[in-house]
Write a structure and sequence with these properties.
The complex is a heterodimer of chains A (266) and B (492). Chain A has ten helices and two strands; from the N terminus they run H-H-H-H-E-E-H-H-H-H-H-H. With 266 residues, chain A is mainly α. Chain B contains 18 helices and 20 strands. The chains are: A mainly alpha (266), B alpha/beta (492). At the A-B interface, helix 1, helix 8 and helix 9 of A face helix 3, helix 5, helix 6 and helix 13 of B.
C-alpha cells in the first residue's frame, strides 16, 4: 500500500508548481506599469477608472480586504489631509465657494476654495489609492519567496532578492504584532481609539517603542536562523519548486501592457 | 584515543558595548552521541553558550571572544558559519522568530536549497525530516497559521535537513503541550540512538528530559558551576516542591464566595472559523483556576474574549453585570491580563514609568502609586533598574516587571497566559508567591499553561479541546481525565 503522506508531499510540490498560474514577475511589471500610468496621467476619470478596476479585481479575485481597522483609519485620515491641504493652498481656476462664507466688517469671507485645488487634491488621492490598492493586490496574491526566485531568473542576485522578499514576508507578521501590542495596551487601560491629538501621539509612541524592540530581536533571530542554514554561502542556490515564465505569462503581460498603453493614449 | 566531538577551551565572551562577561572561562568536552542538558538561572549565559557552540558567536554576533571551540579537531576560527552549520544545528528558543519562509515546505527546504543541492536530494532530505518530526500532514500549511508547538517542530525539521551531527535546542519545550513534548522526547531519542546525533538541550526544567540525558551542566553568571554525569544528577534541585505548590491549594476560599465571572454559551469566530464553541463556565471569587488543553485548543483566544479583545457571541457577566459591550480599557482595571510574551507588554522609557503606566491611564493618584511602585520593584529585585529602560532587562526580569505593572492596581480577576515560559525557578517562585498573596486577599486568578505543576497549584481545571470545553472539575475529580488524555504531564 502506498504511503498517503508521501504522495501528499509530491502532490503538494507539483500542485504549487502548477498553482503559479501567473508568474510573480508579470504581477510585478503590472504594478510598475499601473504606477506609471497613475503618475503619468492628469486625467481624473482615468485615474479613478484604474482604482475602480483594481477594486473589482479585489472583489472577484477573492482577495482579503481585511486590513486592520486602524490602518484604514490612517489611510482615510491621510487622504483627507492631502485633500484639505490642496484645496486650501492651491489657488487656480474659478472660485467655487468659501469655506467660511461669513464676513466680519471688512474681513471675510474666509478660505476661498478654487477649482484647481479640488481637482489637484482629488488627483493626488486617486493616485495614492491606486498605488495602495495595486500594491495590496500584489502582496495578497504573491508568495514573496516565489517573487524572489523569479527575480533571480532575471539576474537579480539571490541575496538581494531575498532581502526584498523578507520585507514582504514579514508585513503580515508586523500587522499581527501591532495588534498584540495594542491589545496589551488596552489590557492596561489605554484607549487605543483616542479622539484627540495627544492621545494619538501617545498611542504611536507606545506602539512604536515595543515594535522597534521586537523588530530588532526578530532581525537578530532571523539572521541567526538564516546563517545557521547556510544562507548566502554560495553565489547561487537551488530550488525545490519550479516557477517557469510560460507562454501564458507572456500573453498576459502583452495584453495588460497593450491595454494600459491604449488607455493612456485615449 | 578518539578526539572529543567538540572541545571548548577557556571560552570567554563579552557582548559588544558590555563590560560584563556573558561567558567566562568555559572549558568543556562533548563526545559523539552524548545527550547533555545545560541549565541555570535566567540570564546566566545558557543561550549565549548555545550561540557560541553553534558558531554564531563570533560569526553572526559581534563581541569580544577569547579562547576557542574545536570541532572534531578543527578550531572554529578556521571554519566558516556554513561549515559549522552542517556540523551543528541550533533551534532557537522562540520558534516564531526563526521561521524565514511563509510555508512549511519552503521552510524545511530552505537550508538544502542554500547548499545548492540537487532537487532530488533536497526532496529526499525534506521528506525524511518531515517524517521524523511527524509534519507531513502540515506540509501545505502557511507558517503563520501554525500553533506554537507546530512551529517548534517545523523549526527542528528545518535544522534536521542540514543533516547536522550535533543538535542544540534552546528551551525546546516552551511552547509544547504534553503530547507534543512526549513526541519530542521520542524523536530526540530516535535521532540519538539511530543517527548517533549528539544532543545539547538548554532547559530550565532538566527533569523533563530525565530519561534522555547523560549529563547535566549548570551555568550561572556565565561560568560552569556544575558538570554531572548520570547517575550523579540531582534533578530535584531545579524543581518546585509539591509542598510549596500545595500551600496555595490549601488556602480555602470562602464557601459562600460569589460568582466573579459567568461565561454563557460563548462562541468565537476567527477568519470564518469557529474557534470557541458554546463555552459556558463559572468562576468564583478567591479561587485559582487553570485552563488547559492541547496546542491550538483556544485557551489564549478565550482569555482575550473575556477582555473583549476579540469579538465573541454569547454572554459574559462580571460580578453579575454584562460586559460584552464594555471596551477593554474600561474593563482593564478589574480584569488584568498577563500576555505570553513579556516584550509585547512594555511600552515606556523607564522601569518606573512602565510600572505606573496603567495607574496613569486609570487616573490614580501618582504620588501614592510611585511609593507603591518602588516597594513592588524592591520585592521583585528590580529596584536597581528604576531609571533604566525596561527593554534592556533580561527575559525573566521583563516578566517580573510585567507582573509588577499589573500588581500595582490589583485587579480583582487576573488572567495569566503561559506565565511560566522561559522562567527559572526563582521567577516561578515569585509567581507562586503572587498567586498566594492574591488568593489570601480573595482575588481570583486564571492560569493558562501546560505545566504539570498546575495539578498541585490550582483549585479547579477547565479543559479545552478544539474550541470546546470538554471537561472541568477539581484536581482530584479530573486527574484520571487529565492523565488518560495526556493533557498535562504527571510525575510518575
Amino acid at each position: 500500500m502506498e504511503d498517503k503522506s508521501k504522495i501528499s508531499l509530491e502532490k503538494d510540490i507539483s500542485q504549487r508548481d502548477q498553482e503559479n498560474g501567473t508568474n510573480p514577475l508579470v504581477k510585478f511589471f503590472v504594478v510598475i506599469l499601473v504606477s506609471l500610468v497613475l503618475f503619468g496621467s492628469a486625467n481624473i476619470i482615468k485615474i479613478y477608472c484604474i482604482v475602480f478596476v483594481i477594486i473589482i479585481i479585489y472583489l472577484f479575485g477573492g482577495l482579503s480586504f481585511k486590513v486592520a481597522r486602524p490602518r484604514y483609519k490612517m489611510i482615510i485620515i491621510f487622504s483627507f489631509t492631502i485633500l484639505l491641504v490642496q484645496i486650501l493652498f492651491v489657488h487656480g481656476g474659478d472660485l467655487v465657494f468659501h469655506l467660511i462664507p461669513i464676513s466680519i466688517g471688512i474681513y471675510g469671507p474666509f478660505f476661498p476654495i478654487y477649482e484647481q485645488g479640488i481637482y489637484q487634491g482629488l488627483i493626488i488621492i486617486g493616485r495614492f489609492w491606486g498605488l495602495i490598492s495595486i500594491s495590496w493586490v500584489f502582496i495578497n496574491s504573491t508568495n514573496p519567496f516565489d517573487f524572489a526566485q523569479s527575480l533571480t531568473k532575471i539576474g537579480v542576485p539571490y541575496r538581494f532578492a531575498y532581502s526584498l522578499s523578507l520585507a514582504l514576508r514579514f508585513t503580515p507578521v508586523f500587522s499581527i504584532e501591532t495588534n498584540i501590542i495594542q491589545n496589551a495596551q488596552q489590557a492596561r487601560g489605554l484607549n487605543v481609539n483616542p479622539n484627540n491629538i495627544r492621545g494619538i501621539i501617545n498611542l504611536l509612541q507606545y506602539t512604536l517603542i515595543p515594535m522597534i524592540s521586537s523588530t530588532l530581536n526578530r532581525i537578530r533571530d532571523i539572521t541567526i536562523s538564516m546563517d545557521g542554514r547556510a544562507f548566502g554561502c554560495y553565489s547561487t542556490r537551488s530550488y525545490i519548486k519550479d516557477i517557469p515564465f510560460t507562454l501564458k505569462d507572456w500573453i498576459k503581460l502583452v495584453i495588460v501592457t497593450g491595454f494600459l498603453v491604449i488607455f493612456s493614449i485615449l | 584515543m578518539a578526539l572529543p566531538q567538540i572541545q571548548v577551551n577557556n571560552l570567554t565572551f563579552y557582548y559588544k558595548n558590555s563590560d560584563k562577561a556573558a561567558l567566562s572561562n568555559i572549558n568543556l568536552k562533548f563526545n559523539e552521541g552524548e545527550v547533555i542538558c545545560v541549565t541555570g538561572s535566567s540570564g546566566g549565559g545558557k543561550t549565549t553558550f548555545g550561540l557560541a557552540l553553534s558558531g554564531h558567536i563570533p560569526h553572526t554576533l559581534a563581541g569580544d571572544v577569547r579562547g576557542e571551540i574545536i570541532f572534531q579537531g578543527v578550531p572554529s576560527s578556521d571554519l566558516s558559519i556554513t561549515d559549522i552549520s552542517q556540523f551543528i544545528g541550533l533551534v532557537q528558543q522562540d520558534p516564531e522568530n526563526q521561521l524565514v519562509t511563509p510555508s512549511v515546505l519552503e521552510e524545511v527546504a530552505f537550508g538544502p536549497e542554500n547548499l545548492s543541492l540537487p532537487k532530488k536530494e533536497i526532496l529526499h532530505r525534506v521528506k525524511v525530516s518531515l517524517e521524523t518530526m511527524d509534519l507531513l500532514s502540515l506540509v501545505s500549511r502557511s507558517t503563520n497559521e501554525l500553533s506554537g508547538g507546530e512551529k517548534q517542530r517545523v523549526a527542528i525539521a528545518s535544522i534536521l535537513t542540514m543533516c547536522p551531527q550535533v543538535l542544540v535546542l534552546d528551551e525546546p519545550t516552551s511552547f509544547l503541550d504534553f503530547q507534543s513534548y512526549q513526541k519530542l522526547i521520542s524523536t530526540l531519542r530516535e535521532l540519538n540512538l539511530q543517527n548517533k546525533i549528539t544532543i545539547i538541550i538548554i532547559e530550565h526544567q532538566p527533569y523533563l528530559f530525565k530519561e534522555l540525558i547523560d549529563r547535566l551542566i549548570v551555568i550561572e553568571h556565565g561560568s560552569i558551576v556544575g558538570d554531572f554525569q548520570k547517575p550523579n544528577i540531582n534533578f530535584t534541585q531545579q524543581k518546585i516542591s509539591q509542598e510549596e505548590l500545595q500551600t496555595i491549594q490549601r488556602i480555602r476560599p470562602k464557601t459562600d464566595s460569589g460568582r466573579v465571572l459567568d461565561i454563557q454559551k460563548l462562541n468565537i469566530s476567527m477568519k470564518n472559523r469557529l474557534v470557541a464553541k458554546e463555552i459556558s463556565a463559572e468562576l468564583r471569587q478567591g479561587y485559582v483556576y487553570a485552563i488547559v488543553g492541547p496546542n491550538g485548543a483556544g485557551k489564549t483566544t478565550l482569555l482575550q474574549a473575556i477582555l473583549n479583545l476579540i469579538p465573541s457571541r454569547g454572554t459574559i457577566l462580571y460580578n453579575n453585570k454584562k460586559i460584552s459591550n464594555t471596551p477593554t480599557f474600561q474593563l482593564a482595571k478589574k480584569i488584568g491580563l498577563i500576555f505570553q510574551n513579556p516584550n509585547h507588554q512594555i511600552f515606556e522609557k523607564t522601569v518606573l514609568e512602565e510600572i505606573t503606566f496603567a495607574p496613569k491611564n486609570f487616573g490614580q493618584d501618582l504620588n501614592k502609586v510611585i511609593l507603591n511602585a518602588k516597594q513592588l520593584l524592591r520585592e521583585a529585585s528590580l529596584d536597581s533598574y528604576i531609571k533604566m529602560t525596561p527593554f534592556g532587562l533580561s527575559y525573566g526580569e521583563k516578566r517580573r516587571l510585567n507582573i509588577c505593572s499589573i500588581l500595582i492596581y490589583e485587579p480583582d480577576l487576573l488572567l495569566l497566559d503561559e506565565p511560566f515560559i522561559g522562567q527559572d525557578r526563582a521567577n516561578i517562585e515569585y509567581l507562586i508567591q503572587l498567586l498566594k498573596e492574591r488568593k489570601l486577599k480573595g482575588h481570583t486568578s486564571v492560569i493558562v499553561s501546560h505545566r504539570r505543576e498546575l495539578y498541585d497549584l490550582v483549585d479547579y481545571f477547565f479543559v479545552l479541546d478544539k474550541g470546546k470545553l470538554v471537561a472541568q472539575g477539581r484536581p482530584e475529580e479530573i486527574v484520571t481525565y487529565l492523565r488518560e488524555n495526556s493533557i498535562i504531564g504527571f510525575v510518575s
